[in-house]
Amino acid sequence: MAYLRNCWYVAALSKEVQASKIFTRKILDENILFFRDQTGLATAMADRCPHRFAQLSMGKLQDDCIQCPYHGLTFNQQGQCVHNPHGDGRIPDKAKVKVFPVVERYSAIWIWMGEPALANPKTIPSCDFLDSENFYIGSDYMNIQGNYLLESDNILDLSHIEFVHPLFSSPSVSAGEYKCEVEGNTIWSKRDIYNDSQAPEFIHKVFRIPQGTVIDRWLHVHWQAPAIMALYSGGVASGKNRSEGVETPGFHWFTPETETSSHYFFGISFPKAMGEEFEKIAAEEIKQLRAPFEFEDKPIIESQQRNIGNKDFWDERPLILNIDAAGTKARRIMQKMIDEENA
Amino acid sequence: MAYLRNCWYVAALSKEVQASKIFTRKILDENILFFRDQTGLATAMADRCPHRFAQLSMGKLQDDCIQCPYHGLTFNQQGQCVHNPHGDGRIPDKAKVKVFPVVERYSAIWIWMGEPALANPKTIPSCDFLDSENFYIGSDYMNIQGNYLLESDNILDLSHIEFVHPLFSSPSVSAGEYKCEVEGNTIWSKRDIYNDSQAPEFIHKVFRIPQGTVIDRWLHVHWQAPAIMALYSGGVASGKNRSEGVETPGFHWFTPETETSSHYFFGISFPKAMGEEFEKIAAEEIKQLRAPFEFEDKPIIESQQRNIGNKDFWDERPLILNIDAAGTKARRIMQKMIDEENA
Amino acid sequence: MAYLRNCWYVAALSKEVQASKIFTRKILDENILFFRDQTGLATAMADRCPHRFAQLSMGKLQDDCIQCPYHGLTFNQQGQCVHNPHGDGRIPDKAKVKVFPVVERYSAIWIWMGEPALANPKTIPSCDFLDSENFYIGSDYMNIQGNYLLESDNILDLSHIEFVHPLFSSPSVSAGEYKCEVEGNTIWSKRDIYNDSQAPEFIHKVFRIPQGTVIDRWLHVHWQAPAIMALYSGGVASGKNRSEGVETPGFHWFTPETETSSHYFFGISFPKAMGEEFEKIAAEEIKQLRAPFEFEDKPIIESQQRNIGNKDFWDERPLILNIDAAGTKARRIMQKMIDEENA
Ligand code: FES
Ligand code: FES
Ligand code: FES
Question: GO cellular component terms (chains A, B, C) (predicted)?
Answer without folding.
Answer: cytoplasm
